[in-house]
Give the backbone structure.
Amino acid sequence: MSMDLAQAQRVVRRGAWLTAIAVVGAVGIYVMALSFTPPDIRQGLAQKIFYIHAPAAWNAMMAFVLVGIASGLYLWLGDPRLDRFAAASAEVGVAFCCVVLTTGPIWGKPIWGTWWTWDARLTLTLFLFFLFLGYLVLRRAIVDPMERGRFSAVVGILGMLLVPFIHLSVYFFRTLHPQPILMKPSSPSLPPEMLRTLLTSFGVFTLLYIGFVTLRYGLALATEAQEARRHA
Amino acid sequence: MGNWLRSALAVAAKDIRLELRSKTSLLSGTVFAALVLLIFNFARDPTGLSALDLAPSALWVTYAFASIVTLNRGFAVERENAALDGLLLAPLPRGALYLGKYFANFVFVAFIEAVTLPLFVLFFNLDLSTSWWGIMLVAILATAGFLAAGTVFSAMVIRTSFAELMLPVLLLPFMVPPLMAAAESTAHLLGGRPLSEVMGWLRFLALYDLAFVTLCGMTFSFVVDE
């Protein structure tokens, strides 16, 4: 019993360390973006927000995809570790989604002249946010851990299927969002200094994701150990 | 396959028979839908917004709400006297059980929609003489989409506290693609455009229905089995 708790504490400690390193890295990105990267010729200082917005968006999407994959594997293998991971990833994904949905309008107001627009990618992000918020609410509403695992896995899988449909349906409208500048067939069209900062920020945010998920995973382990002790 | 479909139809027939005896859900669902349509009319400023501009969204918001209200009862009736245990003990493939519940929900919602459509025409002063069958096609495809994931979620939420609140929170994001397709194509059809112009949306709806019914049927056993 106390073995489990000790293991949970180890995982939490590891997660805390990873998060601490990533937070220092995030400070590093701000210094790098503000002092060592030239401002955009047309957007000026507003463009600096991309070094938070883009990596947060990338990590939110990655988190949600991993929830879907882990959900499918959980229904197949029934391993509780997959369920714990899916829950942790969904929560961190929602947090990153919050960052995306707040930094986006801050940039949109001076550049597009509007806080919000029903553009394809904005709408998709908003609905993914609501979808996984629902996922987290459902998890809290179910007491039995086995049932919680199965139900949320089903929602996770159905959510995966929903993404292409939302994407398709909102894509019929014209899109305002900047087109991809990194992941496109021709070479990235970004000056090397900006590219360096952007890639660093992607790395740091991914580390932040790993740190948060490890932390959350450890906390879930600790909760389970505590529950088991209470029932013993 | 024939046996499988027969089982599904038996489940659907049971639900429909049960509903015809009490009629509570159908009646309250229809009154609810009519009231929502009424409220939409009073929430509109007739000098600022023409009825035709608001009509498609009013219709589809009403139908979406009516679906949620109907879904809320779908598995709630099975909880009384632990009727669901009886259903699960029957030699019934889980996919067939899903399909049966899905059919029954579809019949209920289609009934509510069919009854409120004339009211919609009346309240919004519309002319459906050329577009009625196009709108019916859209309604069938979109309702089939609403209920696909909805049937699975309604089985899920009865095990949670606040089931009536949990269902819309889970389901509304899933309703967005069919809702968007339905409102867009209804707007085109009401504007007198030919059906060929909304063919893309109809194909999209059919694809959505097929994909979700298949995946929901496959995952349903994880929701009902212990």
User: Anything to note?
Assistant: DSSP finds nine helices and no strands in chain B. The longest helix of chain B spans residues 94-124. The mean pLDDT of chain B is 89.
